[in-house]
Amino acid sequence: MSEGAAPDDDAPGFALPGLDVPAIAAPYRVLARKYRPQSFDDLIGQEAMVRTLKNAFASNRIAQAYILTGVRGVGKTTTARILARALNYEPPEGGGAPTLDMPVLGRHCRDIIESRHVDVQEMDAASNTGIGDIREIIEAARYKPVLARYKVFIIDEVHMLSTAAFNGLLKTLEEPPEHVKFIFATTEIRKVPVTVLSRCQRFDLRRVDAGVLAGHLRTICEAEHVSVAPEALGLVARAAEGSVRDALSLLDQAIAHGSGTVHADEVRSLLGLADKARVIDLFEALMKGDIGAALTELREQYDAGADPAVAISDLAEFTHFVTRLKIIPETATDPSLIEAERVRGADFASRLSMRVLARAWQMLTKGLAEVQQAAKPMQAAEMVLVRLAYAADLPTPDEALRRLKEDASNGEGTPSAQRPAPPSGPSASSGGGARLALATQNSAPRPQPVERAPEPVPAGPRLSTMVDLAALASAQRDLRMKHAIENQMRPVAFEEGRIEIALVPGASPALVQELQNKISNWTGRRWLIALSQQEPAEPTLAEQKDAEHASMMTGVRADPLVAAVLERFPGASIVDVRTRLSEEAAPEMSPEEYEGLVAALNEGPGPDDEIEF
Fold first, then answer.
1. N or C: which end of the chain has fewer CB within 10 A?
2. CB 204 within 8 A of CB 233
């Protein structure tokens, strides 16, 4: 830390002269204020910004306005004060120029650090949002600084200024006097108008890496003479999520909780976290499919004070860590990791496939939302673990497709992916997940299926076309399914025990499973309904019927007799065409009679003539 990191440390108390009274102890200052950086050398995790500013100051390319953005606690306001100090830095002997190298406190440094310099004005835009406050800044900018080199205006949470205030600031911000500099800080950069952003140099302060933050906390603990466990520092650093202020606040609370000594167990209890090693044990039980051990471990963590939602979140975090470790092995060098994470995580990464890890991540993240919204979070968390453990028996999509193809080539009616899995052990508490997790990727070769004689097909309705299927649905009085078969399903392939269809646009994919269940119940045989993306598929039954009707209408219109009738009777139209339902109809006309009837229509019947069809 710099020599000005704790400006009041050398004066622990004071006594009134001439009075025999004990010294009054100075009030305690929290770590976040006591160890606030006072120079760019003290900043951690912002090397890119420091390098850019240092080069700009060295080449005298100093902008008239800067805007600093980032999440809470990364040092926006602190950086603004350090930047104001750098702009006005003068060594104790006088002279100098703007610089980021400030080895000792200059003439104005102490006043700027303590926010009481006359030429460095700080304004909180959260409580000064109006155009009147900006008018005061514009008026003050007209006058030269009293003591320092520049007049610096620091506006914190600048995004909270009103629209009128932003508009009033634009002209001065674009062409300020040479002695004026603006420094803005905000956590909501998207709420700042682009007209303001285009007039400023923007710096995005990054979240501080957990390893860097843990090292910073260790340095502070040494300065405070506090005994702290390395694992406890890692827990605090990760809980802070990159915020230095949050980390120092948590560390302050942990020191008070442990009476000057910080242990990992106390930090876990303070933060409501589960033991990291126990989280790994829970992860291993789930990957093995041992749901009994997993539920027991979760209950023990819950009884020890761990929140169910935090336990699920920790599992998701460890799943992400193993996945990242599988892709980037260098992740294990993070100093904030404990030894169990580093060793056992690498073992999981080498033995688990990427598909299994991705599926576990999806189930945990979706389950976390359920736990957070559930009336009884513990029960919801247990059900998440049950789903995850029993997912060990589910094949991945590519495995399911391969099994379907193998079953089709072997002539089996039931895909292996749909057959009930055999019990994996004598206990019902086992999830049967031996295939999911801890089996190596180089598994034994798959045994060849044994050929067997085809089973006799049980008696029942025989189906060979979609027309038969629609008739069966009508016979079962399931009019909704009959309508779906006729209007929403396009046949691709139809054979005994298997139907392949394509759905019309807008049809529900759930129709496939619903039809498979119903046709199996109706026929007493197992049927497989497959959804195909093959193009082109055959038309639906309704489309075939419409096409047939349109063809009949076209043929009827082309008939000379019908054409003569339509011509003879203006305004007449063909309403419908029906096929002959009975053979007991009028006999067909001879060609001579037909031609005579057409001629009679063309000549026009007399008022007393009758034409018989």
1. C
2. no
| Exposure letters 578-594 (e unless 16+ CB within 10 A, then b) | eeeeeeeeeeeeeeeee
Residues 40 and 167 in one domain: yes
Model confidence at 141, pLDDT cuts 50, 70, 90, reads very high
Residues 250 and 276 in one domain: no
Which amino acid, one-letter code, is at 504? V
The β-bridge relationship of strands 498-503 and 528-531 is: parallel
Question: 1 pLDDT band (50/70/90 cuts)?
Answer: very low
Residues in the chain: 613
Phi, psi of 582, rounded to the nearest 5 degrees = -140, 145
Three-state SS at 54? helix
Q: Would you say the pTM of this structure is higher than 0.70?
A: no
CATH number reported for the structural domain that contains residue 78 in this entry = 3.40.50.300
How far is it, in rounded angstroms, from Cα 130 to Cα 63? 26
Distances in Å between the alpha carbon of 429 and those of 111, 281, 293, 423? 69, 17, 9, 11
Q: How far apart are CA 89 and CA 38, in angstroms?
A: 13
* Window from 242-246, 279-283, 444-448 with minimum mean pLDDT: 444-448
Q: What residues make up the domain containing 396?
A: 272-408+429-439
Q: Rounded to whole angstroms, how far apart are CA atoms 220 and 541?
A: 78
Residue 304 Cα distances to 172, 283, 298, angstroms: 60, 18, 10
Q: Would you give the distance in Å from CA 347 to the centre of its chain?
A: 27
Question: Using 50, 70 and 90 to split pLDDT, how confident is the model at 420?
Answer: very low
pLDDT at 589: 59
- Cβ atoms of 208 and 44 closer than 8 Å: yes
Q: Are residues 197 and 48 in the same domain?
A: yes
Q: Is residue 224 part of a domain?
A: yes
Gap between the Cα atoms of 412 and 408, Å rounded? 6
Number of domains in the chain: 4
- Choose the final residue of a domain: 147, 171, 204: 204
Cis ω on the peptide bond leading into residue 423 (within 30° of 0)? Answer: no
Model confidence pLDDT, tens digit, residues 472-487: 888 888 888 888 888 8
Q: Is the pLDDT of residue 284 over 60?
A: yes
CB atoms within 10 A of CB 346: 16
Q: Is 604 exposed, middle or buried (0-12, 13-18, 19+ CB in 10 A)?
A: exposed
Q: How far is CA 506 from CA 484, 509, 532, 533, 535, in A?
A: 12, 9, 15, 14, 17
Nearest to 274 by CA among 254, 293, 297, 301: 301
Is the distance from CB of 212 to CB of 75 less than 8 angstroms? Answer: no
Average pLDDT over residues 522-545: 79
Q: Strand ranges (DSSP E) for 133-257?
A: 151-156, 180-186, 201-204, 227-228
Residue 569 domain-assigned?
A: no
Q: What is the pLDDT of residue 593?
A: 62
